[in-house]
Structure formats: C-alpha cells, structure tokens
Amino acid sequence: MSLVVMVTLPPERAHDVARTLVQERLAGCVNVVGGVQSVYRWQGEIAEDPETMLLIKTSGEKYPELEARIKSLHPYEVPEIIALQFDRALPEFQAWLRESLEDRK
Amino acid sequence: MSLVVMVTLPPERAHDVARTLVQERLAGCVNVVGGVQSVYRWQGEIAEDPETMLLIKTSGEKYPELEARIKSLHPYEVPEIIALQFDRALPEFQAWLRESLEDRK
Amino acid sequence: MSLVVMVTLPPERAHDVARTLVQERLAGCVNVVGGVQSVYRWQGEIAEDPETMLLIKTSGEKYPELEARIKSLHPYEVPEIIALQFDRALPEFQAWLRESLEDRK
Lengths: 105, 105, 105
Hints:
Three copies of one chain form a homotrimer.
Chain A: E1 2-9, H1 11-23, E2 29-42, E3 45-59, H2 63-73, E4 81-85, E5 88-89, H3 91-101
Organism (chains A, B, C): Deinococcus metalli
Family (chains A, B, C): Belongs to the CutA family.
Protein name (chains A, B, C): Divalent ion tolerance protein CutA
C-alpha cells in the first residue's frame, strides 16, 4: 500500500526537510508546494501563517518511521501530518517508489 | 473519520471563505493554495480560469454542514467540493482537529 | 466512483496536457498548480526539478484510458500518476463530472 503524506511547514524549513526524507529513504519523492497561506484556530483566535506544503510519496510500511522523523524535524508542537492512500497508480511508478524506499548497503 | 476537502474558488473570494469556515468551527485548518489555473469544459467549449484552492481539514460528522455552508458562500452554480478520507494521521494532530471542531459556549 | 489523479510534469508541458485531457473527455476538470519543486532519488543521487502539478478529476471507468494517454503525452520514462478516490463530493458536482466525461457525437 502506498501513501501521499501531506505536511505543512514554515517556508524556510520545507526544502531541507524534503531532502532529508529522500536522503534517508523515508520518501521516494517529495513535491514542495510554496505560496500556501494557512488559516486555523489557536487559543480561541483565528490565526494565519504563510507555509509550504510537502506532498510525500511513501509506503504504508515506512509510514511509522516517516511520521516519527517528521515530528523530530518539525518546529511545531503539533505538526499537521495526514496520509491519503493511493487508490491506483501507474504500475511502473509503484515499482520505482518501492525501489526508492529500499535500504541499501 | 477525518477528511481533506478540496474546493476551488475565484482568488478574490478564497481568503474570506477560509476564515469563515474556521470561525464557524466547520474546519480545523484551511490551506489556501494560490496560483492555480483550472481547465474545464463549459457549454461544449474548453474554458480556463485562475482559481485558488482550499484544502479544508474537517470531520465526517461536520461534512454535511460544511458542504451546505460552502454552497451558500460560493459564487458558482456548481462548485467543486471533493472530500478525501485520511488513511492515517499524527494522533496529536487528530486530537487537535477534533477539539478545534467542538462547539463552545 | 470518482478520482483525483495527481500528475507532475515539466512546467512548459503542463498546460497543453491539461487541455488535451479535457478536450478528449478523459478529465472533467484539471487544476494546474505551478511553482512546485520536486525532490527525488535518481541513480543514487538526490535530484531536484521545478515541476507543475495537475489535479485531474475523472471517473474510475475512464482511468485506464486516462493513464495510457498521460503516458503517451509525458516526456518522462516513469511519470508519477497517482489516483485518490473521492470519499464524498457535492452531488451536483458529481453529476456535472459524469456528464463532462460522456462521449458525444
């Protein structure tokens, strides 16, 4: 089973986190989407922040380790980490993704 | 069950709709993604419009009320409102989302 | 069953592919999201490319034909083509989407 994991980050941190996750084989590919404005409720008030969104492609098997790593890298106390399951995908892309996540010596 | 709800809007309306949905506790958090160009078929012709996308985090229980509210705020006759289910998420984020959606006195 | 299909492309190709898919009734609507930076592993190294993301709204029935068409239009050997299933959607939008995908004489 494969997943798209959505994470939002302060813009200045997004690129380094994306590279780290690919470097450590926790993600096969990360799309870094800039120019996001996030609106939320914090301590009873409506707050807004500019953010960057990561769309992280990984497997169900890697997810627990990925989630823990994002938590350790993320500056927020409660980061947004949401996983959506692929319904289908190009088979060659699925194969490439599995291979990208395999640990090598 | 939690949902990411995708909605596209004219850019000048997106920010106010996002704030309204959080203010009314129909969404815990909304990401406003600018710079979208939408291509579609309308009355037999290919049409294009600049739009802004909202990625709205909510619960299955709130969805019917959220959908009705977006319809009432949206300038199009047939707005795009699509909900995707979380497969998993950071437990602390899920707890924060539930709390953000609770009605308070 | 309806799908959101995520595809990433070189920015200069994205707009034409979006129009072609709508023109050929393989998609009811395509959102073209610019300003994406993709990070991935290629031949053992971390690589990065500017890309544009398409979010393609289609049906499960049309998916095989859509996937084949994207492969034929896409300049990469292994394009990213990922489909996520709608959990719910505005009924009028679902009806509009079905109608947009119907072949006409």
